[in-house]
């Protein structure tokens, strides 16, 4: 070749321009696409286009475009003039994008003409990079022009910007005339493209013609793939360790979707010349028979047959072509869904086999990596076809083929698509995981084989006309790759080496070049193979994007959502659900540096979609768990005492009726015995619960398939999603289970059964997916022991505490319930109770409540109880202060009957309005007794809770309890008081109620210690001298069978004992025993005086039996009083007599 021509060829820089123009074409496609979407949506459309004040100007611009006369229509453009700066600023991005498109069009056409003039020879099997780059440029250019013609309001945007620019600068933009002409020309893009690309048909023909062998090898049925055993490593096990390669290695994983675009789009534009070639016509017809739509860009598609028919019908002499298109359309409607569905079936099995091989032997990724790229590329093509056609496939009404409409719908919905997507993602992860294996293998292969073979082939090329100065590119290429250990270190230089080969292709493809590369095809094949091996070293991510990028889902959001929801609904495919979350990591690959404004939108969409998939998956798992929990709860109910009692009653009724003649009229009740669900006659027969359990295992397999999903530099941990979801659902379930009707909560034992059933299901879940179930239980149940949980919501502790305080104890205070010391539970007193109180307060229910609330919850409940006691003490203190003088008199003259009679008269005085208001307390004595009785009820309930806590802890933590008790018994009383708070938290009995001490101390900060001490002493005096008043109350009758009085006055001794020790411990005078003895003396004196006065006056005898029993229980329940002390001030004979008479009276009443 002449040196002058060589310099001219170098100046053309065909390789560099192809790379730059193709990159710019994709960037412009992205920008035009965003403009089209923005103009199509009212929310994102430029505000000026929807402004009513601009409407007349916009109409004028669109009508007269591109000629806009501002001077003659100043009134029309007055609003534009007022907002000219805002318009220019707002629409400049839109306008200059179209200007960039204009410049790109001019540069592209100029470059294509240059290549045509240079008479380049294009062959995809020979100079792959050059031919592929040229065809990409042609199709990208056509796509750009088609997309331009679809932009709404393009005339309005360009015209109003130019008008505002003219009003601001005194002249329009210099590019506007040419830009306006381009917009007008491409109103009908196909006609204009045909005019501009028609003269270049020779070069386009040579490029597409070279695709013939490759395309026919790729576009075949799955049955041909099976017969050829393509993608199978086991078919030829002897060659398993040999490198997989062909003479056209770069074409093996070439996308069929890309080749369809290369064939169809140029053939439409240059139909006269290209379709006259039988081979190209055959490829074109086959492409039209394989589908109804072609990708333009992202979700912008071209409906092939209507578009082609519309274009051809406007041209004469194309009747035959029109008929061929119609026939191809009919074939596509009938056959293409089945062909593609069969391909997907084959690819599922093929990719599964590859995945198993490479998982077991990752070293095979080195020699057999070509199989991975082929499998991924073939699969990606089929997924793209399905996404594209599932939205636009005509219904049976339009096609008129209702008989097979169901089959076509089934093939287009493809319920097994998630499995194929899963294998694609798994293979991608394997390539990333073992990237160094692939890299190291191909580095050694290039150095040990490719470099040597290329050196030999280069020497042969010199004998066929390759000059030394022309071979410099390849010589430097061979020299650099032959250095051992340098390829990985010089990964950045490998891109330059591949560009050298691209330059060599461009140089040798020109007609005037002296060396014909086609005469040295082995050299070209070897160079293409070496370039592929070099790409395995430094471009593995680019290869993954080229062969398996599914970012198209970012623009088919509803399709993606439909696919993964369908996947979740099918037990056979739900284990592959997480593949859709992993697909969201592909979305970022659709971004382009020329359109940075869409980055945030795409990233947000990918994160939101990934989050939605994970949330829905966890929701589905939660729903299955609920079904299994309901079944587990039914099994637990079968072994409950209630169910067993019903079965016993039913059996007794049957036995009785069997002896009678009316057994046929007895309704038969069939009870399911516990364990019957485990009886099986056939192991293949699955129950509903078996299927739900299988579904749960499949869903858990989906969650555990990957540890984390990385999307846009965000890490999603599926197991943590599941953990948080289960934690929230468990917490919500527990709260919902507390109450059935929203008012009365469940019995604690029932709630505990519900919680245990749910925990059983979650423990079984741990066998299917590795999550920390223990941490889950601890987190949720510990939160439920607090008044509010981590989300500031009401907990079980708060609900039960509120209910027991505001319902149970309040009703007990009004006499609707009675505390039974014998049953250690509240029992109903009358028929006004809407629930049975013993079902909520008996020892077994208290133990269940303690297990639910835990020590923290019991402590909170106790604190609330003590708070109520403290408020009652505050009210008692007010009564003491108001009667302070009379109580001081009673304390100093308790042995003088006249003085005490005067005291009793004052304290028993009833206000005049007490009779008008029956609900009001009639006297001070009644008020003192009622509040003391309420305090006793609260302490009785609190002691029952503590006893239950002590029982549960002794069973669960026996060593801790025994250690505390040993320590407690070995210390002095003062130390025992110090240990009281520790003991109370464990439910142990203590000398002093420190919680009450602290509560009273908090209420008396404003009172001096001496004054409060005096009030405390007088309070005990007031209670002591008020006890005889109980003899006048009709409900103060002791019932030995329940060890209670119907007005709960039997709770007064516990209140006195607890109050006395707490109040006098508060002052630290260490006189608790003296004060309690003083109280006993006052009480016994008042009781004896009451009985003596009844005998002396001869009036109605007051029932003193209950008072004697009360006095005995005061001593029994006090740690500071003994029977000896009682004997000194009250004859114990009266106590024995009182008990005996009460037993006799109740026995007489029962017998009567």
TrEMBL record:
Leader sequence residues:
none
Q: Write the protein's name.
A: Uncharacterized protein
The family assignment reads: Belongs to the HEM-1/HEM-2 family.
Name the domain of life this protein comes from.
Answer: Eukaryota
Question: What does the record list as GO biological process?
Answer: cell migration; cell projection assembly; cortical actin cytoskeleton organization; neuron projection morphogenesis
> What InterPro entries has UniProt attached to this entry?
Nck-associated_protein-1 (IPR019137)
Q: Which Pfam families match?
A: Nckap1
Q: Which Gene Ontology cellular-component terms appear in the entry?
A: SCAR complex
Q: Do you know which PANTHER family this protein is assigned to? A: MEMBRANE-ASSOCIATED PROTEIN HEM, NCK-ASSOCIATED PROTEIN 1
């Amino acid at each position: 070749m002449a040196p002058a021509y060589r310099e001219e060829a170098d100046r053309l820089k065909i390789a560099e321009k192809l790379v730059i123009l193709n990159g710019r074409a994709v960037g412009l496609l992205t920008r035009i696409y965003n403009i089209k979407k923005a103009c199509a949506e009212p929310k994102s459309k430029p505000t000026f286009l929807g402004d009513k004040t601009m409407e007349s100007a916009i109409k004028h611009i669109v009508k007269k475009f591109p000629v806009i006369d501002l001077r003659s229509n100043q009134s029309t453009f007055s609003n534009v003039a007022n907002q000219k700066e805002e318009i220019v600023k707002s629409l400049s991005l839109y306008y200059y994008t179209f200007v960039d498109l204009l410049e790109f069009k001019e540069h592209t056409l100029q470059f294509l003409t240059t290549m045509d003039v240079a008479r380049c020879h294009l062959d995809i099997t020979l100079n792959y990079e050059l031919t592929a780059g040229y065809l990409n440029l042609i199709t990208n250019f056509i796509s750009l022009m088609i997309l331009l013609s679809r932009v709404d309001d393009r005339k309005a945007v360009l015209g109003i910007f130019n008008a505002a620019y003219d009003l601001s600068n005194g002249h329009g933009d210099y590019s506007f005339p040419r830009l306006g002409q381009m917009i007008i020309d491409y109103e009908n893009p196909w006609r204009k493209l045909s005019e501009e690309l028609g003269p270049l048909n020779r070069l386009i023909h040579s490029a597409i013609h070279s695709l013939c062998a490759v395309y026919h090898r790729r576009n075949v049925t799955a049955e041909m793939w099976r017969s050829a055993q393509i993608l199978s490593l086991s078919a030829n096990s002897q060659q398993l360790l040999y490198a997989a390669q062909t003479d056209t290695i770069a074409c093996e994983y070439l996308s069929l979707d890309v080749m369809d675009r290369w064939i169809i789009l140029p053939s439409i534009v240059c139909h006269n010349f290209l379709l006259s070639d039988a081979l190209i016509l055959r490829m074109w017809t086959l492409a039209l028979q394989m589908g109804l739509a072609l990708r333009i860009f992202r979700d912008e598609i071209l409906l092939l047959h209507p578009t082609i028919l519309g274009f051809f019908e406007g041209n004469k002499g194309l009747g035959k072509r029109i008929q061929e298109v119609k026939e191809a359309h009919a074939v596509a409607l009938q056959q293409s869904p089945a062909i593609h569905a069969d391909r997907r079936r084959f690819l599922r099995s093929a990719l599964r086999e590859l995945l198993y091989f490479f998982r077991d032997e990752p070293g095979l990724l080195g020699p057999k990596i070509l199989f991975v790229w082929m499998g991924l590329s073939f699969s990606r093509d089929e997924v793209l076809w399905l996404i594209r056609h599932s939205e636009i496939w005509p219904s049976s009404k339009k096609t008129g083929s209702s008989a097979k409409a169901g089959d076509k719908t089934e093939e287009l919905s493809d319920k097994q698509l998630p499995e194929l997507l899963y294998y694609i993602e798994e293979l991608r992860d394997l390539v990333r995981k073992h990237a160094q294996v692939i890299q190291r293998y191909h580095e050694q292969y290039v150095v040990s084989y490719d470099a040597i073979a290329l050196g030999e082939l280069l020497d042969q090329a010199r004998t066929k006309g390759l000059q030394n100065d022309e071979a410099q590119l390849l010589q430097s290429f061979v020299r650099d790759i032959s250095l051992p250990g340098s390829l990985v270190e010089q990964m950045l230089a490998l891109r330059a080496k591949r560009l050298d080969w691209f330059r060599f292709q461009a140089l040798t493809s020109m007609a005037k070049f002296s060396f014909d590369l086609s005469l040295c095809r082995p050299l070209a094949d070897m160079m293409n193979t070496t370039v592929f091996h070099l790409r395995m070293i430094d471009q593995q991510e680019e290869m993954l994007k080229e062969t398996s990028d599914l970012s198209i889902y970012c623009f088919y959001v509803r399709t993606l959502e439909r696919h993964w929801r369908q996947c979740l609904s099918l037990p056979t495919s739900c284990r592959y659900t997480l593949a859709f979350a992993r697909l969201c990591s592909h979305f970022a690959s659709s971004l382009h540096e020329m359109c940075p404004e869409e980055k945030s939108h795409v990233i947000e969409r990918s994160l939101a979609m990934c989050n939605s998939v994970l949330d829905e998956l966890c929701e589905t798992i939660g729903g299955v768990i609920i079904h299994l929990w309901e079944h587990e709860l039914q099994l637990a109910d079968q072994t409950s005492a209630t169910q067993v009692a019903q079965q016993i009653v039913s059996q007794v009724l049957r036995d009785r009726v069997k002896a009678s003649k009316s057994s046929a009229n007895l309704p038969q009740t069939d009870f399911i015995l516990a364990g019957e669900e485990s009886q099986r006659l056939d192991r293949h027969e699955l129950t509903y619960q078996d299927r739900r359990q299988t579904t749960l295992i499949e869903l858990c397999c989906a969650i555990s398939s990957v540890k984390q999903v990385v999307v846009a530099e965000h890490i999603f941990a599926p197991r943590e999603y599941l953990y948080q979801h289960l934690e929230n659902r468990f917490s919500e379930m527990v709260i919902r289970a507390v109450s059935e009707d929203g008012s009365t909560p469940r019995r604690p034992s029932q709630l505990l059964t519900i919680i245990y059933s749910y925990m059983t299901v979650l423990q079984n879940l741990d066998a299917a997916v590795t999550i920390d179930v223990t941490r889950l239980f601890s987190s949720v149940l510990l939160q439920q022991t607090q008044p509010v949980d981590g989300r500031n919501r009401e907990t079980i502790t708060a609900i039960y505490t509120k209910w027991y305080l505001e319902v149970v104890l309040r009703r007990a205070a009004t006499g609707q319930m009675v505390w039974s010391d014998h049953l250690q539970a509240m029992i109903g007193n009358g028929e006004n109770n809407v629930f049975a109180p013993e079902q909520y307060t008996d020892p077994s229910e208290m133990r269940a409540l303690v297990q639910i609330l835990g020590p923290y919850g019991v402590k909170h409940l106790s604190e609330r109880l003590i708070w109520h006691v403290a408020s009652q003490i505050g009210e008692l203190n007010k009564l003491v202060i108001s009667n302070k003088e009379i109580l001081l008199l009673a304390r100093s003259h308790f042995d003088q009957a006249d003085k005490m009679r005067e005291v009793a008269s004052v304290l028993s005085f009833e206000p005049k309005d007490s009779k008008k208001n029956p609900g009001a307390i009639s006297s001070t004595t009644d008020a003192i007794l009622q509040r003391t009785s309420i305090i006793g009820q609260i302490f009785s309930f609190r002691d029952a809770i503590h006893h239950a806590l002590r029982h549960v802890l002794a069973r669960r933590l026996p060593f801790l309890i025994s250690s505390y008790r040993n320590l407690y018994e070995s210390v002095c009383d003062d130390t025992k008081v110090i240990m009281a708070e520790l003991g109370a938290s464990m439910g142990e009995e203590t000398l002093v109620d420190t919680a009450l001490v602290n509560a009273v101390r908090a209420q008396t900060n404003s009172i001096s210690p001496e004054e409060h001490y005096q009030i405390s002493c007088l309070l005990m005096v007031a209670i002591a001298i008020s006890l005889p008043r109980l003899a006048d109350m009709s409900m103060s009758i002791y019932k030995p069978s329940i060890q209670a009085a119907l007005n709960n006055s039997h709770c007064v001794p516990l209140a006195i004992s607890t109050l006395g020790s707490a109040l006098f411990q508060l002052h630290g005078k260490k006189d608790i025993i003296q004060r309690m003895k003083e109280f006993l003396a006052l009480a016994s004196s008042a009781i004896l005086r009451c009985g003596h006065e009844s005998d002396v006056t001869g009036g109605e005898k007051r029932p003193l039996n209950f008072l004697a029993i009360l006095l005995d229980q005061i001593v029994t329940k006090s740690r500071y009083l003994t029977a000896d002390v009682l004997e000194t001030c009250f004859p114990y004979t009266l106590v024995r007599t009182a008990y005996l008479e009460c037993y006799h009276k109740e026995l007489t009443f029962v017998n009567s």
